[in-house]
Amino acid sequence: MTDMLSQQNFERLAYVAFIAFIFSMPLFLDEFGLNRFSKYLVYGMLGIAISLAWGYAGILNLGQGLFFGIGAYAMAFSLKLAASSTAGGKTPIPDFMVVNAEPNAIPELSSITTGSWIWVPFQSQWFGVAMALAVPAILAGLIAYTLGRSRVSGVYVAIITLALVLLVRLIVIDQQQVTSGFNGLTDLAWFNLFGLELDPYAKSTYLIIAFALTIVLLIARWLVSTRAGLVLQGIRDNEVRARYLGYSVVSYQIFFFVVSAMIAGLAGVLYVVAAEFASPTFLDIAFSITMVVWAAVGGRASLLGACIGAIGLNFIGATLSETESLMNAWQLIIGLIFIVVVLWLPRGLAGLASDLADRFVTRADDSKWNRFKSVKHTQSPANR
Amino acid sequence: MDERRISFAVKDLSVDFNGFKAVNGMNLSVYKGELRVLLGANGAGKTTLMDLISGRTKSTGGKVLLNDKEITNWEEHLISRAGIGRKFQIPNVFKELTVRQNFLIADCKETRVLPNIVRGSHRELPDHIARVVELTELYDFLGTEAATLSHGQTQWLEIGMLLVQNPDIILLDEPTAGMTAHETRKTAEIITRLKGRHTILVVEHDMAFVRSICETITVMHHGQNLAEGTVTEIENSAEVQAAYLGSAGIGHA
Fold this sequence. Notes:
The complex is a heterodimer.
Chain A: H1 2-24, H2 31-56, H3 64-83, H4 95-100, H5 125-149, H6 155-174, H7 176-179, E1 191-193, E2 196-198, H8 203-225, H9 227-237, H10 239-244, H11 249-275, H12 285-298, H13 303-322, H14 330-344, H15 348-361, H16 364-379
Antiparallel strand pairs in A: 1-2
Helix pairs in contact in A: 1-15, 2-8, 2-11, 2-12, 2-13, 3-5, 3-11, 5-11, 8-11, 9-11, 12-13, 12-14, 12-15, 13-15
Chain B: E1 6-17, E2 20-31, E3 35-39, H1 46-53, E4 61-66, E5 69-70, H2 76-82, E6 84-87, H3 99-106, H4 113-119, H5 127-135, H6 151-165, E7 169-173, H7 181-194, E8 199-203, H8 207-213, E9 216-221, E10 224-229, H9 231-235, H10 238-244
Parallel strand pairs in B: 3-8, 3-9, 6-7, 7-8
Antiparallel strand pairs in B: 1-2, 1-4, 4-5, 9-10
Helix pairs in contact in B: 3-6, 5-6
């Protein structure tokens, strides 16, 4: 009992320290540093999404970039329109569409290029935000339902999600007249949050992103602490037993997969707000796999661990790549960190931290004595 | 022939694994509150029969009836919700979770996702779980990961989870396998206590154990119901003896 309480306290302490840390960054960083760190926070949010799907639901999604990319593009559609002017018609037209338009096309969003009508509702930036959450949610629901129904699991899920993100990347690049293809969407407007223009280099924007990350972290933490979260961990551990207790495995997986996708979608929105562009590189397989590495290093079974893993690895990566002597070796170093963690710390840095906390915070002799006593206790049949 | 009500039954149940009929036209009716023992040599189809009843394996012919309602080839979780619980031959628990968490998940009156989010997790074990924990002697191990329990404790944990789940019908596949003498005695005690309140179908080879707990035995052979009767009838049945010829006999099957 005492172990459990101090474990809980340790975890609570780690959450408080982390939140205090991210909110104190404006004290240490200039505006450029702050803008860069806000992108790390977005990666941290992706770490949470991976941890929820992989660490808790047991679904290794190698295509998390799909949800992130959809979120980013949905937001970028809106912010692009906000920055565009009309081309002789009533609706604003993104510059790349003007270039791609047929010579005599009517210069309205609904008609200027094939499929450009899809942009029409994105004139409202809140529609962009809504789609950034809704589309990943619906897609994730369909994927989890289909895979769950046909009882596809393990490495096959990874391969299918990988293929999906590739497929969408191809479509985005191919449909240049709607998506701007390879070039991605640049020259975006600032997000207008109830009158506040979110300048990516402003302290307020950083704080809003930090606040969003905090909320996502706490909601995810709360979700896994509920009974549903417990059942989900049971399902990850032993699907058969869970079914035999009457739980619909697929329902639980759908729910948490959808939540994970929505977090990734939100991360896409915030990334566009901070970075002012959206590009097909978000849908690169390498990016999706990198996310999994962040979570593995931080500890996939710990939401905070995966989040810190993402932020930490990006911070280390950026620092190393800017250190002249290490400029060419930084990816190697990140790779080494990954290998070391996978080989010796299967539960990631979060697992290491919790083991250390166990050792130092709880009185080790005390818990050993308890276990010794209880073993003696059950071994004598006369007891009960 | 009997005025008692049938709890569950299988009729002409068959399954075909690429030409091999593990269960081949099996018939069985178990009455409410009865404790029925299923005997049979290795490969007779006992575990497959349990797989078929509980939905793990889909049958290729015949029916499974629960309270006269057909549940053939339903999904496992729906069969479970309809009131059939199962203990596997190889202990089947949530190994990465603590004993406490195992018990909490087994308390499965509410199985839907959304209500389980609103509910939150219990801090204190509810009384009905605490009683089972006491009965299965796992009180000192509540915070222990199930993977580190001894074999016997894991078996009890699974039986305990079944008790918490509290299904009308319990399928027990060799509940005393690998247990010490003390553990076996205790298990027999637990099962006897369940008798009457639950309908139980148990695969068990320990004849002393069988004699002490059961009234009717069903013997399976080549995926079919070979014989049915009391312990004495079965032990003296020429048919059963013929079927066991070549193997070491009932007690060692």
